[in-house]
Amino acid sequence: MIALHEVSVSVEEGEAVTVLGANAAGKTTLLRAISGLVPAREGTILFDGKPMDGVPAHERVERGLVQVPEGRLVFPFLSVEDNLMLGAFTRRARARLKSSLERVYAMFPRLPERRAQLAGSLSGGEQQMLALGRGLMALPRLLMLDEPSLGLAPLLVQEVMNRVARIRFEGVTVLIVEQNVKQTLKFVDRGYVLENGWLALSGSAKELGASDQVRRAYLGM
Question: Considering the domain boundaries, does residue 197 fall inside one?
């Protein structure tokens, strides 16, 4: 089964870009292909102008391609701080471990309060903040987020999306897949719409927000 067909997307340094689409449109597959978690049968993935063909996932992380997966996937029987430390497994990240930990704790104030607590005992929103923090510990040059608000209560959705917006405005380059289109279009620069594995639409956040296609399908208008 081919999940993506002739899809071409780009993210410039310092940008925030979103990929929209219904379930099974190919959004997660796109992120996983960029991350090296699934092989691309055709085409080329370029990072800094260099092809990533054959580069394993862990080496892509070393180069700065970092994905925060759907479902959070924290290590439930490790402490909050241990989960964060695992995010800094690359040579580059280990060299800045202390400053990165301080930065994450400043960005997510609930985490230092629970640093010794088992990650599995956190609420869904706290686990998502932990997953975001763990991604930042790897010092991403491109941070890819897969449905960070999925399964959260509305109030927690707002809090998590505010944190994602802060990450973006602090200068981290972001590629985000997110069902909460209205909130996402507030802070991204551009976006793409996938339909059944094909690129159906692209444009600035303003253009996508004004698109009848996007408004009908994702904004309930």
Answer: yes
At residue 195, the pLDDT reads 86
- The per-residue pLDDT for range 194-209, each reduced to its tens digit, is 988 888 899 999 999 9
Please write the tens of the pLDDT for every residue from 52-72. 988 999 999 999 999 999 888
Q: How many domains does the chain have?
A: 1
d(Cα 42, Cα 48) in Å, to the nearest integer? 19
Give the predicted TM-score (pTM) of the model. 0.91
In a domain, 44, yes or no: yes
69 domain residue, yes or no:
yes
Give percent helix, percent strand, percent coil of the chain, each to the nearest 5: 40, 15, 40
Q: What is the CA radius of gyration of the chain?
A: 17
CATH number at residue 186: 3.40.50.300
Q: Do 205 and 190 form a contact (C-beta atoms < 8 A)?
A: yes
**Cβ of 203: how many Cβ atoms within 10 Å?**
15
| Per-residue model confidence (pLDDT) at position 78 | 97
H, E, C per residue of 22-44: CCCCCHHHHHHHHHCCCCCCCCC
